[in-house]
Amino acid sequence: MCNEKYNGWSNYPTWAVKLWIDHSEISQTNLHRKAIFIYKNAIPNGRFTKSEVAIFDLQAWLKSDYENRLPVVGSVWGDLLTYSLDMVDWYEIAKAIIDKEIDKTSDDD
To answer: What global pTM score does this model have?
Structure first.
């Protein structure tokens, strides 16, 4: 079930995380700032564009941030929570955020 598309996202856990990110104004503001910082500091190389490097960096930061906040629960609930977070497509979320920030930045020019 977790591998099935859900509301336009790759699966339910990915949709749920993005929904909760968007649910909180504080979360949105902090993530907006982090995404801008990451994008401005991304250095393109011969293989990846500035945008792609920013997506990879934001993906790694998001995954790490959520894993670090994961409560230690030694039970079936902890196992299910860990499994669900492992199913999240962090790249997909990071790409949506970076693409949105690039669009905002280009509108301001």
So the answer is: 0.86
